[in-house]
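Minutes, project check-in
Item: structure for the 427-residue chain
Input as provided by the requester:
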Amino acid sequence: MACSNSSFRRRPPMPSSHTLWFARHSSIRLLLPATILGILMIPTWGFGAQEEASDATTPQIANKPDMYEQEIQTLKDRVEVLETQQNSIMDDISQRVILGGYGAVEFETFGGSKTSFEGKLEVLIAGQIHDRIRFYNEIDLGIPEGEAEAEQAYIDLLMAKWINLRGGVVLVPFGKWNLDHFDPRRDLTDRPLVARQIVPTTWGDLGASIFGLIPWSPNLISTYEVALINGLTDQFSTTNGGLQDAKSSLRRDNNGQKAVVGRATVKLSDQYEIGVSGYRGASSPTNGKTITGFDIDLELKPRGIPFWEDFEFKGEFANFNINGSSTPSRLYGYYAQVNYHFWPSVFDHTFLGEPYTHPTFTLVGRYDHARIATRAGSGSLNEDRFTVGLNYRPIENYVLKTEYQINNGGIERKSWNGFIASIAWLF
């Protein structure tokens, strides 16, 4: 069967399902571009907001380093102010306060006793808190006893050359040796018997004093010091230390009655000195037991006189009476000492002389006597001592000492003879 051409005319293609869907939803065709455009614009809007926020916070962040730097600088300025104040305080202290001290190490060997090393170290602190207010401290660090103690710790109010006020732990003005007891200044290691058994050196006590200097002429002056102190107690010993154990040891007064003590001197041309001391005070809290003491000391240093200018002469006598006591009732002692300073030129170019400006040898001879008398049946105790020594001073504040003692008696070393050596220094 023949088919007409019209029956075989090709029909237009059928639209796809997507085309039909879009054809049916012409509104979607309009919304889709707008939606895509909106989606594409969303990041732009977000970043724009972030940039605006960032732009708003950037000045704050940018300002924070400046704020931190300002705070750091402020702290630095404060630290600098504190350091300046501290340095000012330290400079002020260094200008007003002097720190020093002295020490000694000693060796001794005596028949009947073991050999021994002894020693001491003391700190000296002095200064001024005003042109007319000064202080002085001497602290014994307790070697070898193990107990530190203030030997001196006082303050002075300087009012006039002839009268001044002192208060605190004062060095008791009784005898030359008690006032000038520094080891480096002494030419023998051992103190004389009068300073060990009779006058209880080193003797410091709580109290107050007045002191001064009176110039009679350019070459003649007088000095004095009068003190009111707690005073000695009734803890005397006839066998060990005499009045050493009677010191108050800076405790409260055991009897409530103050002791009066003083010393006066006359000095001529800084070469000759004579001093006189006195003491009076109760010792017992019950029956008084008044102690009275007297001391005279002498020191001669001839200058400008050929031969004699190399010599020094020293001596001291002290006596104490204890009323109402039988053990002991009286204590007294004295010493006489001669020093001869010399330097052989043969040592000039040796290790003893060449490194130093004025090295010196000193030959020393001393005689001591002490007596502790009692009213009891035990009688009296006596001791005599002869000492010969030689010391070497490369400089004034360092000394090497050697000495030999001959003892006869019953107080301290009895009849034991022995050798003593020491090194002492002052800084």
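Outcome recorded: The chain has four helices and 16 strands.
No further action items on this chain.
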